[in-house]
Design brief:
Radius of gyration: 17 Å
Shape: globular
Strand content: 25-35%
Number of strands: 7
Distance between the termini: 42 Å
Largest sheet: 5 strands, antiparallel
Amino acid sequence: MATEPFVRNGFIMTSARSKEPVGVYETVSVHFEDLDAYGMVHHNKFPFLFERAFNSYLIRKGFPFGRGSGSPEMVQVVRSMQLTYDVPITRLGEVQVRFWLGHVGRSSFTYEFVILSADRETVHARGTRAMVNLDAGTLRPAPLTWDLLEFSRPLMSDELLATLQAREPRSASPAGEGSPVQ
């Protein structure tokens, strides 16, 4: 299958500046334990392929993992995940995962992703993962911070970025703290 799944509402998702597909590509490995009895990647392993790609991206960008890292007052949790399977992965080796931010709300955001063959010619699966930003003390939804959005900028289309900037002017401190949308 060609890259037509990247088309949304008749338009290919690109950045106005680069004309390349929005988001990033990460290469991840399909491991033996990902396969089922038929030699195909088991359906419950596809979220792990996305997670491996996403974590690889975060590590490459210097995101701190572990206790005491990141923002101690905020935590992001998965609200929902949706997957559509197109073509089975039938062997070990590498696949490409392309992901980007498709939506950013007041306290939540949604990643969209496509799992592709290593040559990017075959779409194996596509999906979304919605996340909610929580206040670590109350575990209630909390506004996204500009720091988090700035870190996520490479995953946003120009249109999404413009929408966020138009929603509310940045009224935060010069250090970039505060919420983009209250």
